[in-house]
Every structure is written in structure tokens, then in C-alpha cells.
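Many introductory courses stop at the sequence. We go one step further.
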Amino acid sequence: MKKKKLIAATMLLAITLSQVGCSNVFSDYIDDETASSIASLGKSFAVEKGTEMVSDIVENSTALISQMIEESKSPDDADSSDSVTGILSSTADIGLMDADGKDTNYIFTYGDVAFAAIHWDDHWKIIDSYLIENSSDMVIICQALIDVHPIHGADMENYRTADDMAYEWLQHNLAYEFLPEGNAWREKSKDVDFNPDDQGKTFIEIYEERTGKEFNFKEIMGK
């Protein structure tokens, strides 16, 4: 995704989130200083333009979020200078190991934090995955997992790639950021479960399939 396109969409989203009280993190795409500037600009722009304009943006937030998610599906379109370097250089960096010798409960480290990864059938699940935000590091971690146990994709014939697993992980992180505290789906999003059925889907699509109803940002936020 081109940085200027993301910044334009993010500025509008910053305006929305400044009204509904939800924080937003875009460290996978832009640096912290830029993200902070966008958030400040969004708040000041909302004050300047008044509540009527802000109300319109809130009304259309679901479409805006959908657009940003769709654009995030094309990482090859991004300028190399737009990416944020992670802390990992290889799968060996996380020290993935079988914690109990049962080939189910694994542990790995990221920075100074230990994470649990659980494997069963065609699933991998990372506990508290929302704490990891860098997309390039997500890819390396996912590769480490499937090096040990490959898992099938939605067609149950081909195997998942680290890239498409990282995309699913990003969807969980987006859901955790956008949804309000106390929301059941936000709690589910704190751990990423690489489910074959969810391959390639946005968190909005997953939400609608699970609940059987249309995702409405304004309604979910209680506004």
C-alpha cells in the first residue's frame, strides 16, 4: 500500500476514532511519529469542522475500515521505504521449542517476552498475539511454526504460507484495535487462531460469518 494512500485513509479514521474513544495503531505501515501526527491532525480537524461532518464520517466508518483492509492485501504495491523493519532476521531468532514433549504446546520468545503457541490438527494458535505488531516479524514467526507443522489452507489441499498466515494475524490485530473493550469479539482477537476456514478473509468477513449479521462499526461502538 502506498504510504500517501494509507495516510489519507488513516486521517479520516483518526477523526472517527477520536470521537468514539478507540485508539489506533498502524506501526506495520508507518512510523510512530507519523502515526501520532495523523492522530493529532484528525482530532484538530474534527474540532474545526464540527460535529455534523464527524457524524457523517462515523456513519461511514465500516466502509472506510473495509477499504483500508482491502488495500492492505497488496503488500507488493508498497514502496520499500514504507516498511518498518522488525527485530527478527530468521526463524531461529524466536527459539521455538516443544514445551512438554507432546508436540502440542510450544513456546517461543519475541524480544524479552515468552509466547505460547498451540498446535492441533490443521491449526496453530498464538496466545496474546496482539502484543506483536510488526508484519515482517509476523511472517518470520509464522514460517517458524509451519516449518515444524505445516497446516492446510481453506481448500484442505494446499498448505498455508507464512505470508497468508501473517495476513490473518493482522486481521486479528485490527479487530483488537477497532473493537471496544468488553466486546466479545475483541477478546477473541487477542489470540490468533490460524483456522483453515479463515484463510484470506478480513476480520469483517469473519465477524459476519460467525454472527450471521452485517458488521456495523457505529452499532458495535454503541454510537
